[in-house]
Design a protein that fits this description.
CATH superfamily: Vaccinia Virus protein VP39
Strand order of the largest sheet: 3-2-1-4-5-7-6
CATH architecture: 3-Layer(aba) Sandwich
Order of helices and strands: HHHEHEEHEHEHHEEHHH
Shape: globular
Helix content: 25-40%
């Protein structure tokens, strides 16, 4: 964790570390030095047999995210209870050639620390390509199907460049700084770049309620990350709003599901165009309202362009509703 996007892990049970506070800076961030990784298996024949057995066990248990999380010692299966929810939402993608981007590689500025969850994802998605972004230089984690980027999660140019290099983004996991301001900015940039059937995840949303982390003690404060996430549920049902005219935002048109768990939120992307029967049911309310052409109503409700394709946010158009 860091104020600008480091995804380190806190060893304390309460999850609060001085090293994780937003003001902390490191002099070793994003250096160009590359750290080599030896892949040679050394030792006695008995040791080599032990490694082979461990590899076989890893292959057998690779479909169990909680087992993988504990094996690689990621806090997603340790101090937090996230892997059970990831299992539910990611299992249908397991055998696909997906691209996953996780913001926050872990380990803070400690030498050769971090990368546990990237390794977990690599083994859970045997055909997937795993990408990580951290404010610290984590290039040592790179191996087959794992790539590390160095930089801040609130750098729009960097995020767009990563998305361009990766190609199709199927999964984005924000496990970075956990500072609400960064969460909002990262979502604003990356959600429109997510694949049409992709999944966007925000971890450790408790900081939304912590003023010390940039949150607010009032749960109804409209400027927090949780407030934005809760507004997505209203946007999911925007065609039922009776206040007209209403211009749907990009997320109104493209969010098809939001799932809340303790400190963890999953957002499903798609085309939100199921329509509404409100005019047929609320006849009295709409008796005095001028009827618009059906084709115009469908186009406005679904957010489609005249050619039938889903419109991306234009310059100046908000991705989400403003609180």
């Amino acid at each position: 964790m860091s104020a600008t996007g480091r995804g380190g892990r806190c060893a304390r049970p309460d999850g609060i570390c001085a090293a994780a506070k937003p003001a902390r800076r490191s002099s070793r961030r994003c250096s160009t030095r590359r750290v080599g990784v030896s892949r040679r298996t050394s030792g006695s024949p008995r040791r080599r047999v032990g490694v082979a057995r461990a590899t076989t066990e890893l292959e057998k248990r690779s479909a169990d995210l909680t087992w993988l999380g504990k094996h690689f010692k990621t806090d997603k299966a340790g101090t937090r209870h996230y892997t059970q929810h990831y299992q539910r939402h990611f299992s249908h993608l397991r055998d696909r050639e997906i691209n996953l981007l996780e913001i926050g590689i872990g380990g803070y500025s400690r030498e050769k620390a971090g990368g546990a969850s990237l390794r977990m994802w690599k083994h859970f998605f045997p055909k997937g390509r795993i990408h990580g972004l951290d404010i610290e230089d984590k290039s040592f984690v790179e191996e087959d199907r794992i790539k590390a980027y160095c930089g801040s999660q609130d750098d729009p140019e960097l995020l767009r460049r990563i998305a361009s290099e990766v190609g199709r983004l199927d999964i984005v996991i924000d496990d970075g700084s956990h500072v609400p301001e960064h969460i909002l900015k990262t979502f604003e940039i990356l959600f429109p770049l997510l694949a049409d059937d992709g999944i966007y995840v925000v971890e450790d949303t408790q900081t939304s309620y912590w003023p010390e982390w940039g949150g607010h003690e009032d749960p109804e404060n409209p400027g927090t990350s949780m407030a934005m996430l809760k507004r997505l549920t209203d946007g999911l049902n925007h065609v039922e709003f009776v206040t007209e005219p209403y211009e749907p935002t990009y997320t109104d048109r493209r969010v098809v599901g939001v799932h809340f768990y303790h400190n963890l939120v999953f957002i499903q992307k798609g085309v939100n165009d199921e329509g509404t029967r409100k005019r047929a049911i609320l006849k009295k309310r709409y008796q005095a309202v001028d009827q618009v052409p059906a084709s115009a109503a469908v186009s406005s409700a679904s957010g489609t362009t005249p050619g039938g394709t889903q419109a991306a946010p234009t310059a100046g158009e908000p991705v989400t509703a403003v609180g």
